[in-house]
C-alpha cells in the first residue's frame, strides 16, 4: 500500500498507509483537525542489499554473458 502525507490545519504533517482506491482523508484520525493531502518529491524507491550495487555498478565494469573464446569456436561464423 502506498504511504500518503497529510498536512493538518496547524501545519504539522503525518503519514498514512492507504489503498489507492480509498478516498483521501478529510480529518486527522488523531486530532480531528481538517487535513489536506500533500504531494512529496520522494519517488518511494529504496534499493536495499548488496546485489543492486554489485550487479549494476561494480568497479570492474559490466559482467559479460559467457566467456570470450580466443580460438574462434562459437563465434557464429560458418565456413562450410
Write up this protein.
There is one protein chain. The protein is mainly β and 80 residues long. The protein has a domain at 3-56. It is 8% helix and 19% strand. The protein is built from one helix and three strands. The longest helix is centred in the last third of the chain and has 6 residues, at 51-56. The chain is elongated, with a radius of gyration of 26 Å.
Précis, in short:
The chain has 80 residues and is mainly beta. It is built from one helix and three strands; from the N terminus they run βββα.
Major sheet details: 3 strands, antiparallel
Q: Termini separation (Å)?
A: 60 Å
| Uncertain runs | none
- Beta-strand proportion: 15-25%
Shape: elongated
Give a count of the beta strands, DSSP E runs of length 2 or more: 3
* Average residue-wise pLDDT: 77
| N-to-C order of helices and strands | EEEH
Task: Please identify the structural class as seen in this structure.
Answer: mainly beta
Order of strands, widest sheet: 2-1-3
**Radius of gyration from the alpha-carbon trace, in angstroms:** 26 Å
Which secondary structure elements does this structure contain, and how are they paired or packed?
Elements: E1 3-8, E2 13-17, E3 35-38, H1 51-56
Question: Which short descriptors sum up this protein?
Answer:
single chain, 80 residues, 8% helix, 3-stranded antiparallel beta sheet, mainly beta, 1 helix
